[in-house]
Amino acid sequence: HQRLLQELKGKPTQTSKGQRIKLYANIGRPSDVDDVLANDAEGIGLFRSEFLYLDSQDYPTEEFQFNAYREVAQRMEGKNVVIRTLDIGADKQVGYFGLEHEANPALGYRAIRICLTRPEIFKVQLRAILRASAFGNISIMLPMITSVNEVHDAKAIIEAVKAQLRSEHVDFDERIKVGIMIETPASVIMAPELAREVDFFSIGTNDLTQYTLACDRQNPNLSRFADPHSPAVLRMIAMTAKAAHDAGIWCGICGELGADRELTQTFVDDGIDELSVTPSSVLPVREIVREH
Ligand code: PEP
Ligand code: MG
Q1: Of the candidates 246, 270, 73, which has an alpha carbon nearest to the alpha carbon of residue 173?
Q2: In this structure, are residues 108 and 91 in contact, taking their beta carbons and an 8 Å threshold?
Q3: Which end of the chain is more exposed for a tag (fewer CB within 10 A), N or C?
Q4: Is the beta carbon of 106 within 6 A of some atom in ligand 1?
Q5: Sequence ranges of the binding site
């Protein structure tokens, strides 16, 4: 079987009827690009940028981040690299942020909520991402969105950073795409409105399952109740894809469910445009799509 999988390298991720799926990979660090290339992923659908923060003793500088993002973009040679902005808090804690202890961290001060209240941190990251966008095909993805207002606020900060770079005559991709993660029930319900504001959706099934089923994703005692194939979650995925397509944008999945081969057929039938999976799952998922 390993040999059969190897033969899928370079082959399109396409059903027998010709429906094409973009098959991307998830990474946390620039060095993960080795695995992405070795497994023939067609892009990077989720660069969990918080690892650059988790690996540091203090706030990573613009230059440090710029080098990391540029390296990934260059090595991907024009293939799409979706960089998720800082998703710290909850299950990902960093000491130097000085975050207060919370009784319910998953429902607390995390991700885009930190970025919108501490724009000085967000802007450093956005400058690094935008500067790196001159060296490849980078997209920006915002995590933990629950409302249209948050998207407006984040986009206003992105525009301010772009204006600053222009005034400094620093190159960046003027047409850089901005998308959001759909990983809260609120964002599924508001998907038709959100889709008019952004260039793409990527469904974070890890958090979407946690918030939809009210089951802490880190509590192993809840596995009986946290059914990843829950019809509630699957219906939300279909609703999200439909809202995206009605507005003319693409919709992917970057949570772990995206690599679940038992669901690949469902996702293809939902019209999911992109699956971003751990690098070792790329060829197994390509195999199952081609058998569809
Ligand atoms: C998700 O929530 O499904 C996701 C992809 O993001 P993370 O696992 O990093 O929270
Ligand atoms: Mg998440």
Answers
A1: 73
A2: no
A3: N
A4: no
A5: 48, 84, 183, 206-207, 217
- For residue 121, is pLDDT > 90? yes
CA–CA distance from 62 to each of 59, 124, 125, 130, 204 (Å)? Answer: 9, 5, 6, 11, 27
Per the model's pLDDT, the better-predicted residue between 59 and 3 turns out to be: 59
Atom of ligand 1 nearest to the CA of 255: 3
Give yes or no for residue 93 having a pLDDT over 90: no
Binding residues for phosphoenolpyruvate: 48, 84, 206-207, 217
Short-list 88, 89, 108, 92, CA closest to 211: 108
Q: State the ipTM, two decimals.
A: 0.99
Say whether pLDDT at 92 is over 90.
Answer: no
Q: Given a cut of 80, is residue 54 above it in pLDDT?
A: yes
Ligand 2 centroid – CA 248 distance (Å): 24
Known catalytic residues? 254
Q: 276 and 82 in contact (C-beta within 8 Å)?
A: yes
Contact 133, 73 (CB under 8 A): yes
Cα 207 to averaged position of ligand 2 atoms, centre (Å): 5
